[in-house]
Request: fold
Amino acid sequence: MSNYRVLLYFTLFFIVYLIWAQWQVAYGPKPEPATAISDSSQSNQIAETNNTGIEDIPQAASSTENESAVLPAVNDNVKTTEHINVVTDVLDIDIDTRGGDIRRVVLRQYSVTADKREEKLVLLSDDNINYFVAQSGLVSANKGTAPSHNAIYRSEKNSYRLAEGEDSIEVPLYWENDNGVKVKKVLRFKRNDYVIDVDYYITAGRQKWTGSDYMQLTRSRPVKSNAKTFIRTYTGGVVYNKEIKYEKYDFDDIAEKNLNYQLTDGWLAMIQHHFLAAWIPETGKNNLYFSRYNRNKDLYTLGARTSATVIDPGQTGEITSRLVVGPKLQYKLEKIAPGLDLTVDYGILTIFAKPLFWLLNMYHVLFGNWGWAIIFLTVTVKAVFYKLSEMSYRSMAKMRKVAPRIQKMKEQFGDDRQAMSKAMMDMYKREKINPMGGCFPILVQMPVFISLYWVLLESVEMRHAPFILWITNLTDKDPYFILPALMGISMFVQQKLNPAPIDPIQQKIFQVMPIAFTFMFAFFPSGLVLYWVVNNILSIAQQYVITKRIENS
Reply:
């Protein structure tokens, strides 16, 4: 088999894979609940709540934990009150005194585009377009004894800023009722950290207090970008714990059916390309994970309510949770909670992608530039597969050497394909040529190539990263299309080193391929094109040396 045919198969495989990956995003199988609430009347009540959009407070779990709770419905008719602004070294946040909801999050170290560094990325916002807020609250079996996310808190200040020399700041919010129940809700922010600790200090009144905390993310379906991309990454909900692992629950799932998971520990998140917001309940609790869809407002909610906490009269108890809002920095996420690093979604190729990213990150630490890291990663991958590539190129070189003899056979046997095939097989046997020798090594390398594609696509660490000269953003296309042109030239040179196809149709197809690939890669992130250019140059050098050895032997 000629190198041209192998290259064609590889190209088709790669394109089919990308189409399949995109199909999985849009139409892939949906998760089934691990432990569904079986009470049919309960399900009907939840459905009615979704349609009306009136009830937005969950019923508290009882101390016996039968979990038959009415889940909170989205209610966007509640007006905001005063906002508290909190500024750290990495976050600029607005907190509403109604519920202590986080209504706006600006990532101070990330810009919307590479050419407008001063325009910082807004991850959460209560604007009508791309509405996305984080809410939390308490519910109790005794109504009026717990502040939900609709309750009005009292705040000592309306502005907080992390000062030089401070490692953290706390934002306390206060609520109390006539029965002596007092709640202090504290949001804690730390330096160089995208994790927000949310702590409730509950002092019971004259009676025993029994209640739960709940947390939820509510957002509208994202407005589609006008940017032209070859493939879209996943945007939607995720639920995780050690039993069900990583389950996606997208906007269509939420609109179609209410999620009802009873899980120990775990977390929930709304993720998008490079960024996420995630709630992590207190460990050791049995949580009810839920979802709702508000048809009137077209809002989607994913949330969790923890098991009951009991506080004796006059005593103070504590309930904690954590909110993560920021970039999907892989090594930080895996330290925050088990499985949270899976939000960097490499899919089925994670087993290859994670080691590749580790190596890429090591080179970045060494060189301080993601472009050079990509180049040296390419060299390393090429060295690892050197022997497999050598087998492939030897086979191609031998095919190239006997190509004139094959052409003579074609002229000799004419339309007698059977005789032509037998003569070719006899010649391959005499010359010890394996016609499939050039195919297998490339097939083995395919998972690595595709894994690297996802590493470069998914890693926020490389977002807007510059290289050298005109390449100022490795995650955007080459502004002058120089790298795609170099890739097309390198493909053309490789073709000259390969045996020419006998079939005239194949000859025409492969003459067009360098041009077609140049146009296709013109819209790929320049970091990906850089990888292919370097890989092609190394392949040309290796193939040239091997071909000369075979021809001179």
